[in-house]
Write a structure and sequence with these properties.
By secondary structure, the protein is an alpha+beta fold. The chain is about 40% helix and about 20% strand. Helix 1 runs antiparallel to helix 2, helix 3 crosses helix 5 and helix 4 packs across helix 5. It is globular.
């Protein structure tokens, strides 16, 4: 039996501008204002790198959202249509020993559903 071929996942070269305030909004729930400003500034200037989807999930400790989530479903449809996704924004929290997905949780869930071994472009600080 042959293995099903996953659709190719296309990515933008840089995160979209609206991803940064979204990340700051989420980070403000976890960190004080000083840390939010520092992380937000560092994310804007960080280089884009890539990690496997499954490794990002393991490092974050988060649960995988299913296709019943409307945002995940929308991103899976974008992948199928060949629409490029925005790289995700990550923050290393050494005190927790985890990676915080500051922006892109629904995108990473969609990518994982399509191909858990897919390389996911991201900025990480």
């Amino acid at each position: 039996m042959s293995k099903a071929v996953s659709p190719e996942i296309h990515w933008l070269t840089e995160p979209e501008e609206h991803d940064y305030p979204a990340a700051a909004s989420y980070l403000a729930l976890i960190y004080d204002e000083t840390h939010v400003v520092r992380h937000s500034t560092l994310l804007r200037t960080a280089p884009v790198t890539a990690f496997k989807a499954k490794d990002i999930f393991r490092a974050s400790g988060l649960s995988l959202l299913g296709v019943s989530n409307s945002h995940v479903s929308k991103n899976i449809k974008k992948i199928a249509a060949g629409t490029p996704l925005s790289p995700i924004l990550l923050v290393r929290d050494r005190s927790l020993g985890k990676v915080v997905i500051a922006d892109g949780y629904h995108r990473i869930c969609a990518v994982y559903k399509v191909d858990e071994d897919a390389m996911v472009p991201c900025k990480i600080v």
